Amino acid sequence: MLKNHFKIAWRNLLKNKGYSIINIGGLAIGLACFLMIVMFIQNELSYDRYHENSNRVYRVLHHLNENDYKEAWVWGNAPVGPALKEDFSEVLETVQFSGREDVLLTNGDLTFQEGNCFYVTPSVFDVFTWNMISGDPKTALEAPYSIVLTESTAKKYFGDEDPMGKTLSGTSVRADDGDYTVTGIIKDIPSNSHFGFDVLVSMSTFYQARPSIFDSWGYVDFYTYFLVPENFDPIAFQAKIPAFLEKRLPEENKQFHYDVSFEALEDAYLNSTAARQPGVTGNASNIYIFGIIGLFILVIASINFMNLATARSMERAKEVGVRKVIGAQKRGLISQFLGESLTMVLIAAILGVAVVVICLPWMREITGKTFQLEHIFTTSNLLLYLGTALITAFLSGSYPAMVLSNFRPATVLKGVFKTSKNGVTLRKALVIFQFSLSIALIAGTAIVYFQMDYMLNRDLGFDREQQLVIDFNYDFQVRNRLETIKSEFEKNGSISSVSASRTVPGAHFPGAGTQIQIPNGEMDFFDISLYEVDVDFIPHFKMEMVAGRPYSRDFAIDTIGSLVVNEAAVKHFGYASPEEIIGKRFEQWGKEGTIIGVVKDFNFLSLHQEVEPLSLRLEPSSSRYLSLRIQSDNLPATISEIREKWATLAPHRPFLYSFLDDSFNTQYEADFRFKKLFTLFSFLAIFIACLGLLGLATYSAMQRTKEIGIRKVLGAEAGSIVRLLSKDFIKLVLIAMFIATPLSWYAMNNWLEVYAYKVTISWWIFALASIIAITIAILTVSFHAIKAAVANPVKSLRTE
Questions:
Q1: Are 665 and 456 in contact (CB under 8 A)?
Q2: Residue 124 belongs to what H/E stretch?
Q3: Which ranges of 415-509 would DSSP assign to H, the alpha helix?
């Protein structure tokens, strides 16, 4: 019997090719989307889990609680790590990384600025599981000027030669220039790491150059991780920290209300809210969003399958009647139709896997993740996928099977069919559900697009257009000749102005402990963000002054005793207006003087964050970047001229440049990927929903075949019949609109909460989404409505 069931199922598929393609194709797309979303979520949840002791590794978060302002930083001081290991038996091992470093490495004619480098303590391989190909993990990073390269980095410098024991000449900021000996090669860091690197340098290299900062609790430049035993209790451990800090923290640092807390390594990527991360972070809410969309796509595909199968029930009615007359039992008919459902779902499942395999390169591009074939064919994925397919087959096939098996032989053999009210209500409810989701997704996609466009085009408070930024990585030879280099570039008619600074908007910047005279006249401590700039920085970026003046060459005092702050800093210091802070005293990193100006707030951070209190300190000797404002219609030629000039001004440095608007927008890479994924899966969900509507339209047209024939005989025009068949579906979409609008508004309003600066959700977005949904519904239904309206009424009436 099973063989017979599958044979009949196969014949029915071939007999109704159009129906089969639509039904199997829709389900295959739904299952493929489900599998792709599962792979994406699995990747997001897998970050750092490849380390053998990932559940036993924590990192230190640093808190500076000043004036009711509390923020956690992952980046902090050096002494806390050794002190934790010395004072607590729970801390089995610690490892510390420096902040990310840019090192200029040279091997013969090959010179590269490695921007993904960390100084690290020798214990790194005792805590983290990175596969060392060559070298001894216990000693590789002990001696000064020892360097460990990833496999791809080693190949870049040495090709197929064995790099072990060879040297690379290096220039960096944190250490003295020297020759680095290659003491280890490790496999490239997996992409599912909360931070990655290409080069590791021994921390002793850093210590040898600047030993004093390793004892300073107020100097920030380190990431601290530690390994704990299996039975570690983080809550109990945190309770011991106040006594630890009371004992360890120097008296001069206690006034800053310094505190520490701890965060599990497995929470570092998805669940961390701390600032100054060593790498990229994910967004847990995006996982929930895509998980829900994946589930909805699967549900919609199942609904479509059920609707299309039910729509075809009229064609199978006489077959059921004949089978019952010759003795077929209801149970046998149900098993037959469930078997047919299973056959179609299994074919769809196979096609779904094929779709995912074909789309793998595209998935890598759109998600930025390294998906491989083996990620599809894992045991867990295959079991989940097969289980989902079987459940889908049973749930989506059970209702049509019950409908078909309940037909009365005497009735169906006469050609008289009646649809139960419960069946009609169920199908209408399913269409409302599908289009509620479709309208919500259309509105959500529009809001995502508007928010991304807002981020790209918002006035950030500074000029970022046509700004070419040269990174010379603090090179002292360049810094010693800054004014000469600037004047040489300004001779180029395509360059309107040049400025030097330690950072530019969107790039890394330090924080500075600063004493400020507050409104009551006393000096108070604040930790604020710091830009070290030259005298041309503010006019070069066309920043607006709201009080006082910018730095000027006409005031010699500016070089030794002046400071400019932003509006956010004025409020943070307790002043009601910018004018009130002009002339107030400050002390910052060895410099004392008065505040001479207040610059209008500009977004030097991404729009996820509000503008922070910022000081702009005149310190061109700390510069890392040259910013050139370009005014040219021929950018390639201008860049070529700048490259040639740089080769004469700084021949020892590679010409590393970027455009400020591009580099600033790299902060939004995750947002743009979310937009692409959200749009794609929304489109697919809507497409599959249309297939469901097509199924219901088919069913409705078949049910009303004789009614349409009679109306045409009595003189009804095709247009009136199309309207007759379409109006019921339009009503369902309108109902869906009223359901979807409040739900989608709530969901998207919550999504926008991650942005400090965001668009306002307007009512017309939902109206537009509803109009689009209605248009899609009309276009979908019109095919069968027109087909029924132009059919010959003689054929439809002859079946009585």
A1: yes
A2: helix 124-127
A3: 421-457, 476-479, 482-490
Mark 278-296 as b/e (b = at least 16 C-beta within 10 Å). beebbbeebbebbeebbeb
Taking alpha carbons only, the member of 500, 564, 562 closest to residue 528 is: 564
Give this prediction's pTM.
0.85
Distance, in Å, from the CA atom of 707 to the CA atom of 107, rounded to the nearest integer, reads 86
What tens digit of pLDDT does each residue of 372-403 get? 888 888 888 889 999 988 888 887 777 666 76
Please report how many Cα atoms fall inside a 13 Å half-sphere around the Cα of residue 209, on the Cβ side. 15
In 3D space, the residue among 450, 434, 453, 369 whose CA is nearest the CA of residue 684 turns out to be: 434
The sign one gets for the Cα dihedral 306, 308, 309, 311 is: positive
267 vs 371: CA distance, rounded Å: 22
Residues ≥6 apart with Cβ < 8 Å to 714: none
Angle (CA) 247-251-257 rounded to 5° is 85
CB-based contact 420:313 (threshold 8 Å): no
Listed residue (55, 738, 35) closest to 378, CA to CA: 35
Between CA 277 and CA 283, with CA 280 as vertex, the angle to 5 degrees is 105
Q: Nearest CA to 463 among 541, 406, 393, 398?
A: 541
Alpha carbon separation from 489 to 590, 627, 657 (Å, rounded): 33, 11, 14
Separation of alpha carbons 320 and 407, rounded Å: 7
At residue 598, φ and ψ (nearest 5 deg) are -125, 120
Beta-carbon count within 10 A of 377 CB: 12
Strands 585-588 and 591-599: antiparallel
Question: Nearest Cα to 530, choosing from 566, 554, 494?
Answer: 566
Count of C-beta atoms within a 10 Å radius of residue 782: 16
3-state secondary structure at position 63: strand
Note the pLDDT tens digit of each residue in 449-499: 999 999 999 999 999 999 999 999 999 999 999 999 999 999 999 999 999
Cα–Cα distance measured from residue 467 to residue 483, given in angstroms and rounded to the nearest whole number: 19
- The number of residues making up the chain comes to 800
Residue 759's closest CA among 506, 439, 441, 457?
Answer: 457
Return the biggest CA–CA distance within the chain. 108
Confidence of residue 587 (pLDDT cuts 50, 70, 90): very high
d(CA 13, CA 340): 9
> Binning pLDDT at 50, 70 and 90, where does residue 64 land?
confident
Fill in the DSSP letter of residue 69.
B
* Contact between residue 501 and residue 537 where contact means Cβ atoms under 8 Å apart: yes
Instruction: Confirm if 616 and 550 have CB atoms less than 8 A apart.
Output: no
Cβ–Cβ < 8 Å for 198, 150: yes
- Cβ atoms 113, 102 nearer than 8 A: yes
Tell me the C-alpha distance between 537 and 768, whole Å.
Answer: 45
∠ CA 648-654-655, rounded to 5°: 75
Neighbour tally for 242: CB within 10 Å: 10
Q: How far apart are CA 611 and CA 757, in angstroms?
A: 10
Helical axes 330-367 vs 17-45, angle rounded to 10°? 50
Torsional sign, CA 542, 547, 550, 552: positive
CA dihedral 66, 68, 69, 75 (to 10 degrees): 50
Secondary structure (H, E, C), 567-602: HHHHHHCCCCCHHHHCCCEEEECCEEEEEEEEECCC
Encoded tokens for 667: 């902060």
Cβ atoms < 10 Å from Cβ of 109? 5
